[in-house]
Amino acid sequence: MSRPHPGPTGGRPTDTDQSTRPTPATAHDDDWRGVAAEDREEVDRRVGVRLQARSRRLLRSLLRPHAAGVLLALVLVVAENVAQLAGPLLIATAIDTGVPAAIAGRPGPLSWHVGGYLGCALATAVLRHAFLRLSGRIGQDVLLELRKRVFDHAQRLSLSFHESYTSGRMISRMTSDLDALDDLLEMGLDGLMSSALTVVGVAVLLVWLDQPLGLTVLATFVPLFLVARWFRRRSQSTYRRTRTTVARVIVQLTETMNGIRAVQAFRRERRNESIMDGLSGEYRAAHRDSLRLVARFTAVVRLFGNLTTVVVLAVGAWRVAHGELELGVLAAFLLYLRKLYDPLDELAMVANAYSSAAAALEKISGVLEEAPAVPEPARPIPLPAPRGELRFHAAGFRYTDHGPLVLPRLDLHVPPGQTVALVGATGAGKSTLAKLVARFYDPTEGAVTLDGVDLRRISDADLRRAVVMVTQESFLFEGSVADNIALGRPGATRAEIEAAAAAVGAHEFVSALPEGYDTHVRKRGGRLSSGQRQLVAFARVFLADPRVIVLDEATSSLDLPSERAVQAAMETVLAHRTALIIAHRLSTVLVADRVLVMADGRIVEDGPPVELVGGDGRFARLHRAWLDSLAPAEPSAPSGLAEPSAPSEPPPASSAPPASSASADTSGRSGQPRRDNANANQAAPRPAATP
Ligand SMILES: Nc1ncnc2c1ncn2[C@@H]1O[C@H](COP(=O)(O)OP(=O)(O)OP(=O)(O)O)[C@@H](O)[C@H]1O
Ligand SMILES: [Mg+2]
């Protein structure tokens, strides 16, 4: 097939990818993209402006579908405020004209005023109700959409992103950051609109009522505006710090809880406590700083309000005394003045919520800006009936931009249906190679192809159907055993599920569980042993029926009889499939058609196990060491491929060690095979010899 390039959708070099991994050339300009600026509390102006613009873009995109609703909410809140504002005006005219008329025996005007006030009161209630319902709905819809976006996006982000970002930070984005936005939407829309409208309306009315007094009041807005600007600047960095520190607390919490076994096993509680104390202390300090800021700001606003009232009262009274102002107007003026400063207080709270939400949005928009390192192709090449031919074309790979080259230019061809065992010392790159086949990562250079198609050009659905990887850590999700097996093929019937379990030898233990296949496995399958979890994972693969199977030490938690049962099952499954098996046990390796010995990311030996054992390479050495280790215990080697499983030293197919053989370590890291006595004593009859 044509040379696969990392196409426009094929991997890193997409435009947006730079957000994940800025290249040195663009590093300066783009060093704020994605989550890069997340840990910075102080960002320079240029970056700050861009971060804010990004948050606003996100907010706009969230609000756009609700444009009509937002407009209606605006109308409602304006109407409500008009009704609200009419109140004092009616009181003023009632005092100045209605009351004198009533005293003069004409109750008409006064009752009009009273009726008008009643109407305004009712209208305010109805409009307020409608507004709150509408704005509440919009707010929650926006949050729902954002939560969905973050979750969906996070699931698509690559392993490498999650490895460095950690689940704790993701959790804090989804919880505390969204809460901050929730606070803003809840009180913000309401508070901002009604307070802003009130302030403007009142200001106009004040000037209209009495110009000199009105202008005096407006003059106080200038220092107020300066104070507000100061507050906004300061609160931005404070709230950035709050969001960052609360995320650190959550990260520490999730890591401790996820590793609670290790924490208790290694008595790490004290150490964790002191780390947590430190982080919580930082969070408290950051939050305290923001509250201090709010305290100063609101106090200043209120002080301005009250001082203005004093001035208005003094000047107004003086003018009333001199007959320049009517008493009613002064009363209305003072009432309005109160109405001016109450919403200013509220505006301060909104500004506070806004700063907090803006910092949260900054972080959330950063996560959303991250591009998946293994994106789905825009125009995938369909793979309706994969054959399972794998090829590495000069594939190079490094985990991080400046990290070491873990796989340097690897060339490999695995024909369809071949079972390949990968062996080599720890850190040789076996799992890395396997992860490239399953496309958890894309190669940094070169390509990996399936049936001649670059994996980057295959849709996720096709790829997941064609290639399944099972690792040592078989992950089970909350739910029943049956649910977990059915993950392999959603929609499988109960009979198919049970057949798959029976095929890998899991049926027996599952049936023995209190509720059989409906038994809840609890969090991460905590109710099952690790061997049982692996059997469930195998049943899953059996059901999924993929063309290519990748097993990364997938049988390491099984005892020999179980492993053999799985192998027996796997042999039927593997017969017509391509398989890549990484195992430390000789018996597993011996079922392979071909063994690849890896060292430092390179394939240093390649051939059928029997051939390699006959030579004098690493594999042969490992094999001999393994045989030596068996010698005192079990002198002769009956026919067939017995349980010795390590690639390092599998006996030739014709002279496998006895059934009770040790399970050797294929990694060859010590050259000293590990003996598994417990297992050795209960070795079951070996599976049929390798093909
Ligand atoms: N997520 C990662 N980020 C950075 N480096 C990694 C990552 N995973 C593995 N490496 C590095 O890549 C190299 C190869 O690791 P790999 O997991 O492929 O080894 P392996 O052959 O599977 O070893 P083992 O037998 O212990 O499982 C190692 O040097 C390791 O430190
Ligand atoms: Mg590994």
TrEMBL record:
Organism of this sequence: Streptoalloteichus tenebrarius (strain ATCC 17920 / DSM 40477 / JCM 4838 / CBS 697.72 / NBRC 16177 / NCIMB 11028 / NRRL B-12390 / A12253. 1 / ISP 5477) (Streptomyces tenebrarius)
UniProt lineage: Bacteria, Bacillati, Actinomycetota, Actinomycetes, Pseudonocardiales
Claim: tRNA processing is one of the keywords in the record: no
Record's compositionally biased regions (Low complexity): 633-646, 678-691
Sequence ranges assigned to domain ABC transmembrane type-1 in this UniProt record: 71-356
UniProt biased composition (Basic and acidic residues): 27-39
Ranges of residues in domain ABC transporter: 390-625
Spans traversing the lipid bilayer: 110-127, 191-209, 215-231, 293-314
Keywords for this protein: ATP-binding, Membrane, Nucleotide-binding, Transmembrane, Transmembrane helix
UniProt topology in membrane: Multi-pass membrane protein
Entry protein name: ATP-binding cassette, subfamily B
Domain of life of the source: Bacteria
Subcellular location(s) per record: Cell membrane
GO molecular function annotations of the record: ATP binding
Main subcellular location: membrane
Spans annotated as Disordered: 1-39, 633-691
Pfam family, one: ABC_tran
